[in-house]
Amino acid sequence: MIFMPHNFLFIWLVQLLSIAVIGGGGYILYEWYERELVGTFYLVAGLVMVLWSVGGRFISLPLLRRPGGDEPKFMRSKTVERLPRPDGSVLQIEFFGPEDGQPIILSHGWGPNSTIWYYAKRQLSDRFRVIVWDLPGLGKSTKPKNNDHSIEKYARDLEAVVAIAGDKPVILVGHSMGGMINLTFCRLFPEQLGSRVAGLILVDTTYTNPVKTCIFSNLVRKLQKPLLEPVLYLTTVLWPIFWLMTWLSYLNGSLYITVELSGFTGTETRGQLSFAGLLSALGSPGVLARGTLGMLNFDETETLATINVPVLVVCGNSDIATKPVASDRMKAELPYSQRVTLKPGGHMALMEQNQQFSEAVSAFSASCL
How far apart are CA 58 and CA 55, in angstroms? Predict the structure, then answer.
């Protein structure tokens, strides 16, 4: 799942339900043992609640989706560079494909790590030099010691990745928060556009605070200050409790439901749903909360008109995390832009419609040579 401000509250509520179920089941079993609750019904009910809490995923996942022919896996490269940063973080950067190929730098969204690019790495590395990196605090990249998880910090990290990508101009691909990072990079390093950067690909992303371009945006905007931000700050402090809640929701299968609703449209395979769910559970809640707070200050509306390289805007037609209207706005204001809509596709269309996505990336990147 991609963690965006609008779905953090929904995830939190689902996780509270997970705590309530296992706690309720344990309480019923204790009262049955103490003979305060008498009868087989209470024993069975308590056992079902507890067992569902630790193994419901084995039931819910097969019910939700059927297996596919090419299920994603945790694929890492043996060609790796560990890049220390001034703030104490260390970036994990991995390389795929021919060394002399056109370099493409893939920046993932907030929540998973670079293994989310499983299909793109396999489908593009036959002709391109595919470079992926884990955002700080996720995957194998360590978090900054000063707890700076701003978009500007990530854009400066991206500039460091571009610097080691080789002599050829690169294509910057960014999904969700990765696209936001790309836009901030363009503002901070405009001199690199056209020289070091040949083109941009913005995938299911936005140009402003994502609260303004998500589903139910009017309601979420009203809840941002009084509810959403306090919950995020609370998560940064009580992250071990939220970590436990996250893994309970993963084990009982409720996490799959939130991943399904927020990222997919129903054509994904069982493996894709399972992979996205596991990646969502692996991220530290404290890190995720700080990065989500950073998104609330994001606004690159004025940057769009200044980007003087070709841009491909890619959007799932049913994306609710960043609605297609965000892509419409970017397409209208970017001077040299194209638009591709993935159908059917949600926020995770890069997995659900991976072949369509890779074909669009390949064709655009080749045109930028």
Answer: 6
- How many angstroms separate the Cα of 122 from the Cα of each of 18, 61, 95, 117, 306? 36, 25, 12, 9, 33
Q: Are 155 and 143 in contact (CB under 8 A)?
A: no
At 64 the pLDDT is: 76
CB distance 283 to 239 below 8 Å: no
Instruction: Name the pTM for this structure.
Output: 0.94
CA gap 243, 210 in Å, rounded = 24
- The ranges of the chain with pLDDT < 50 are none
Tell me if 57 sits within 8 A of 86, measured CB to CB.
no
The pLDDT score that the predictor gives to residue 1 is 59
Gap between the Cα atoms of 52 and 107, Å rounded: 36
Q: How many angstroms separate the CA atoms of 249 and 53, rounded?
A: 8
Residue 100's pLDDT is 94
What domains sit in the chain, N to C, each tagged with a CATH number?
A: 1-369 (3.40.50.1820)
